[in-house]
Design goal:
Layout lengths: L2 H22 L15 H4 L3 H13 L25 E2 L4 H11 L8 H23 L7 H26 L23 H16 L14 H16 L8 H16 L22 E5 L33 E2 L1 H5 L14 E7 L2 E13 L5 H7 L6 E5 H16 L3 H13 L10 H15 L6 H8 L1 E3 L6 E3 L22 H6 L10
Antiparallel strand pairs: 1-3, 2-6, 4-5, 7-8
Helix pairs in contact: 3-5, 3-6, 5-6, 6-7, 7-8, 8-9, 8-12, 9-12, 12-13, 12-14
């Protein structure tokens, strides 16, 4: 049975359980409606039910950043192929991580399956919401906002899928057992991007607030994703035309000119719970340590075999390469202790004793309270922050008009926080490289760098200080990028169970 069948069965099972609970909640048996008459077609009839199906669509943002300890985590799949990071973990997680690090991933990798299934599950929920909400009698403004949220989330899931796997199935309607798409075919990347843009244009006009402190989709999030989509469409593999740089610049400008978002004054605010969903944080995956959806990525930030945390798994799961750290400019604040990275911490057995670790580790999302007091973290994961908007604006502006004052201002705002001298007097090519290098240093370990490498067909060479062509670039620890690495393999289970799916080349 392929995953689409499994997904449909799981959804139907969940629907049956909901119906069972509703039908058994009434003690007056003679006044009950026949439970067999409650179907998917007539269940979604209230505002509460509309809210619930959209809320369910958010839940599938979390599996990519969950995990921890010896189990690894899917977000690592987009970090090891950049060549910026390394791992020491062996055992179960090592069998998943090392093939990615060595550019020898196979189609049975568990991270692939999590990306594929969580995203299509989110799409399935979004499809139900988009199909059923228009017929529900409820406040029209609330309905439109919920539809906008669902359309944004579907676009986000497809944006990841098409960048990871290329031509993937495009499913835009709820499935039932008679659906032709139970064994879907690969759709073209062009068609997928058209669907993404259509969803985002709808969401942009759905009445969403520009910001949302509760972590729901906002108009700012929609415009940010649009800017990122347009920038990607201007690059590989579509190379859709320079007008997409203009579209990306315009959307980024709308966010900048709104004055609703801003760079935090300190990097500490990136891991400050009181600063979540505001300021620099445009859209985040939501976690709460007080309930079951606490985050699972804290353990991945720990060194191997040095007990500095209340978390039991000290694995050295991921850490930056020395060469990447050395590529930062001298004096860059991001490289100082406990800004983006850390090398010193107290021992779990004696908090008065500080140890110096063998390597530097990631402090960007480090939760010191969780590591020293609770072993529970509710820190959110940022999917979009304002710094990325500034990069999109600067890059798109430079591609259209060359280095403008506004483009320099965007990059220099990021450099000012890093306590670096402002850029000036660069030509278009020099500024293009400066933007990318600054982005490599600022947006690292946020699942951004890999996608930039693929759309630009470039990789940073620590030895020469230049950006090499993607194909043929050699990592400092040995592997060489090939054309096959531009896409990940479609999970093997999906290929085996769906004769209509075509595997990506080289897998």
């Amino acid at each position: 049975m392929n995953y689409i069948h499994k997904l449909l069965n799981a959804f139907l099972l969940g629907f049956v359980l909901i119906v069972f609970l509703i039908s058994n909640g009434c003690t007056k048996f003679l006044t009950q409606t026949d439970p067999s008459n409650i179907t998917l077609d007539n269940f979604y009839t209230t505002a509460e039910q509309a809210q619930s199906v959209v809320d369910a669509t958010y839940a599938d943002l979390r599996p990519i950043y969950d995990g921890g300890g010896f189990g690894g985590s899917p977000w690592l799949m987009l970090e090891f192929p950049t060549g910026l990071s390394n791992t020491t973990i062996f055992g179960s997680a090592g069998s998943i991580n090392f093939p990615i690090r060595n550019l020898s991933m196979t189609a049975d990798n568990q991270y692939l399956t999590t990306f594929w299934r969580s995203h299509y599950r989110g799409i399935a929920n979004a499809n139900v919401a988009i199909a059923k909400l228009p017929d529900i009698e409820m406040d029209e403004n609330q309905k439109n906002r919920l539809l906008g949220e669902a359309r944004f989330l579907r676009a986000y899931y497809y944006f990841n899928l098409v960048r990871l796997f290329g031509d993937v199935p495009l499913i835009l309607e709820p499935l039932d057992l008679s659906s032709e798409q139970l064994n879907p075919k690969n759709a073209s990347a062009v068609d997928i991007y058209d669907a993404i843009v259509d969803d985002l244009e709808y969401a942009e006009n759905s009445g969403l607030p520009f910001t949302d402190m509760n972590g729901r989709v906002s108009l700012g999030a929609v415009k940010t994703l649009m800017a990122s989509v347009y920038l990607t469409m201007a690059g590989y593999p579509l190379q859709a035309g320079s007008n997409y740089y203009t579209l990306a610049k315009d959307k980024a400008s709308e966010i900048i000119n709104s004055d609703m978002f801003y760079l935090f004054n300190t990097y500490a605010d990136l891991r400050n719970k009181d600063a979540e969903n505001i300021g620099e944080n445009i859209f985040m995956v939501q976690y709460d340590e007080s309930i079951a959806n606490r985050n699972g990525f804290q353990q991945l930030l720990l060194p191997a075999s040095v007990a500095i945390s209340l978390y039991s798994a000290n694995t050295g799961m991921i850490y930056p390469t020395a060469e990447f750290l050395e590529s930062y400019e001298a004096g860059d604040k991001r490289t100082q202790e406990k800004e983006f990275y850390y090398r010193e911490f107290t021992l779990a057995s004696d908090r008065t004793e500080t140890v110096t670790l063998e390597d530097w580790f990631i402090y960007k999302w480090f939760d010191p309270v969780a590591h020293t007091e609770t072993a529970l973290s509710g820190l959110n994961w940022p999917l979009f922050r304002y710094a990325e908007v500034l990069f999109i604006f600067a890059e798109a502006s430079n591609e259209i008009d060359g280095p403008t004052e506004d483009a320099f201002n965007a990059i220099n705002a990021i450099r000012e926080r890093a306590e670096l001298t402002p850029l000036s007097g660069l030509n278009q090519e020099e500024f293009r490289k400066a933007i990318l290098l600054e982005k490599w240093h600022e947006m690292c370990f946020e699942n951004k760098t890999w996608f930039d490498m693929v759309r630009l067909r470039k990789a940073y060479n620590f030895t020469t200080g230049a950006f090499d062509d993607f194909v043929g670039h050699e990592f400092v620890f040995g592997p060489i990028l090939t054309e096959n690495n531009l896409l990940f393999p479609i999970p093997e289970a999906e290929i085996q169970n769906n004769e209509n799916l075509i595997q990506n080349p080289g897998y």
